[in-house]
UniProtKB/TrEMBL annotation:
Signal peptide: 1-19
Pfam families per UniProt: SBP_bac_1
Protein name according to UniProt: Multiple sugar transport system substrate-binding protein
Domain of life the protein comes from: Bacteria
UniProt keyword NADP present: no
Keyword presence, NAD: no
Record's keyword terms, sorted: Signal, Sugar transport, Transport
Amino acid sequence: MKRLFVGIFGLVLTAFVLSACSGSGGSDSAAGGENDVEIPEGATEVVMWNLFGGGDAEYMQDIVGKFNESQSEYFVNNVMQEHEEYYTKLLTSIGAGKGPDIGIAHTHVLPELVNQGLVTGLDDIASSVGVKWDEFNQNILDATIYEGVHYAVPIDTHAQIMYINNKLVGDAGLLNDDGSVKMEQTPEGYVDFFTTLKDNLPEGKIPFAFSSSGNDPYWLWWGYYTQLGGRGILTEDSLENPKYDIDLDKAVQAANFLKDLYHDKEIIPLNISDFYAEFQSENAATMTSGVWATGIWETTEGLDFTPMPIPNVFGEKGAWASSHTLVLPYYQDANQEVQKGALEFMKFVADNGAMWAQAGHIPAKDSVVESEEFQELPYRNEYAEVASYVNFVDRNIYARGVEEIVVRHLDTVWAGDATAEEAFAAIETEVKKLIGE
């Protein structure tokens, strides 16, 4: 595959190497220098770079600790990195031969890593440690396969879902006896549900707490667009040379539907400073966010809530999601024993997905979702089904750039400063310039 952005990448790489921390490069040097840990005698160190924060970081460290305690052959050194700088540092450090032995990668960044030759195909090593690909959810697994090669071990999918405050929704007469919401799964039924909430909530309460800018409304738009039958923004059959291929009518319809929730229907208040706080303080009847919020709500004293998939308003099942995956950086002089240890750990993480699910994420392996350990976790079964129909963003090297463009222009729609048609005309111009079409 050809390498793109060589000039820019080279400049960033040069700047980074001057200040880079020492790394293993998959060899015998220690990338863990920034983590002062003691490696058990006789164990092979495997350095993992970790972008997680908050509860996610704690759950991942628990998994790392359990792996290290479970055997003595390998020791995973879990090195925390700054989230905002993580991908810049990961891409440049691997290219310089100074990266980790294991990296975390979201599925929308994986195409860049694959295209630039920065990650290793896993099939041979994975087979040697007993990874069974048929145990994974196929929808999640497909997002990690390029030209028939597995380039990552997915450990979850984290989808956008909906949360309801059972007391506020119940007091408004919108809960069935089994605790499900009384909502007709149509655009009209969806709006009627929130209009009824708005009319029946106590004064000052919010029917739908949500952001009016940034990723959250973009993700919800993506879910509606998917439910209308839209699949992506660019063609999905080309990693390096996609074409602009949005279904404009569906994209506009989805945007206008969400815009009306802000403006015409006045269901979502504009410019809420902290919509998480509104739900956590029981001031909002519903909110929409990623599954990671489950771990927050269940540790909030007195909060009676239920998570549920985004209602399938337009007929087809669909929701936005991404996945955390574990990748094996490519190094010319890779230490095969370190690589084997890396895959042993990846398998361990996937097999122990119920531990990771405590953060709210849906495990990538169907066998884990079906396990007693996962089934005993509260709330997760309410939305685990979405893993089989979430729509991952387009699988090409422009995914991050396209997302920035779309989010920026859709923000003008939610703010009421542009029509959906105007926004998508601007999006088309900028995206085509980005991809060189």
